[in-house]
Amino acid sequence: MPSRTLPPTHSPTLEPAGDYEKYDPIETTAAHGSRRWWVLAVIALAQLMVVLDGTIVNIALPSAQADLGLTDASRSWVVTGYALAFGALLLLGGRIADFWGRKRAFLTGMVGFALASIVGGLAQSQTELLAARALQGVFAALLAPAALAILTVTFPTGRDRGKAFAVFGAIAGGGAALGLVLGGLLTEYASWRWCLLVNVPVAIIAVVAGSRLIVESRATGNTRYDWPGVVLVAVGLGSLVYGFTEAENGWTSGPALGFIGLGVVLLALFVLVEARSDHPLLPLHIAAQRDRAGAFLAALLTGTAMIGGLLFLTFYLQIVLAYEPIAAGLASLPMTAAIMVTAAVSAQLMPKIGPRPLLAVGPVVAAAGLLYLTQLETAGSYAADVLPGMLLLGLGLGMIFVPLQNIALLGVDPHDSGAASALVNAAQQIGGSLGTALFSTISLTATAAFIPADPSSPTAPLDALVAGYTHAFAWAALFLVLITPISLVLVRATKADVGGESAI
Questions:
Q1: Tens digit of pLDDT for each residue in 211-220?
Q2: What's the domain range around 167?
Q3: Distance spanning both ends of the chain, measured CA to CA
Q4: Contact 359/388 with Cβ under 8 angstroms?
Q5: Is residue 242 included in any domain, yes or no?
Q6: Angstrom distance (rounded) from CA 37 to CA 97
């Protein structure tokens, strides 16, 4: 089989809007016909597992803490350890998928994630649980970009690409809410351990099906690893995520400022190293192309704002309205349904109107939902005060996810599809860490500053909490609205680029 040799370096010059390179059939060895829809099913199952894992574990934490005797600090590290490993190693995981083979990386990531889940589910001490969560993050950093890269090379162009990314986007957006339901059910009727062990049967199905259905694809040409870049970006992203986590205790604290500052410096050095490398970990032209730059910024802001839509909404349902975990999870299902419905509609609209209108309107609709939630009160009701805002948020997010995922990987050379997929995941991961820290700080500050009308009222403490939640919703809405001008300025992809009628 003839091979294609890529030039050792890529031009950082911005590509013209809509001028996307064609896929090389030598590298794009994906399945065709009906088989590729089964590949999509496997990828969707894997994505669901990774997304569910975050919220399932959050629901299980109180029971795990009581069972294993975790301290409050250790409990937070069950979440932080996963985020650190996942965020720090994503770009390396994407390059391993490109060079080692996307199918091989995907299957290895699935097996490793399942084994780590077994260790966590059977843990008898906090050390074992924390180690298992960090190991899950390591394998998720390999699995997530490999899955998205496989999806990219399986559906390189055309209308089917939009449909595939609609499914992927709906799961990415709605899976977190499903995790709340499943976590509540498993914790109450089985054990918190099953919130981790449930990954095992899912992984077995995905590995068996994936080994038969997915066709191996890997990059050709220059496949040397950029080890200076690996170290700089891993430590830089890890420092940034850890700094944001520490910022929950105060943005002016020494650890928060120190680690965030270190992360920024190391990431700046990473960019300099990549600009001079003839085999970069992250070819800078991937992020420099204006459409993709807009998508990466949108991914960062969406990841940040979703924390305001899920974390504090969950707090309101469980703390203020006194919902049990199962009830709180079920209460979030309408948002999941709204995301999935709008994602399906967006996939049909995108080839007709292009991605830009969806990315411009979706954030406004989602922000309107969050602004509706800023009116919440202690004596509020779910049907009148929560559900409308939740539905608007879901409708808007569904309009964002499909074009965002599509544009972020549109026109990326298959040689770099794993790196581009990793960058999307890294943007969302960093955004989520930033959102957790930022909105927690905003909420706590507003709660502390709240002056009740009647300090002797038995609802005064809850009134203060609700004031904090509503401030977080307002700031999350602001972050979402920023996506609209970014999309209008940067995104130039047309309906032809996403499989529209005039596409070749």
A1: 999 989 887 7
A2: 32-215
A3: 27
A4: no
A5: no
A6: 21
